[in-house]
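Quarterly update from the structural biology core.
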Amino acid sequence: MLANERYSIILELLSSCRAVTISELEQVLKTSSETIRRDLIYLEQQKSLQRVHGGAVSIGHEKPFQSLLHRKNENVELKRELVRTAACLVNDGDTIIVDSGS
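Predicted structure, tokenized:
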């Protein structure tokens, strides 16, 4: 597959998904991660996307950074629902690991 064909497919995926991972692109394009990384670098230089760790996002769709206080107060009910669901999955004697987050 020619580079221009890969570029078109990458940009088409980004227009519908807003974000893609290198592993997703490997499956779709049937090429190596090194080739995909070079393609993403080229497309970023053309201002067509923004590279992020592990893939790329379409320009203008990434969320701006918010403070912890702001994030702590977002989606409060969804976070409570997640906690209730997770609590049902923990049995006596289980070990769980809790990571930090808002």
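The helical segments are 3-17, 22-29, 33-45, 68-72, 76-88.
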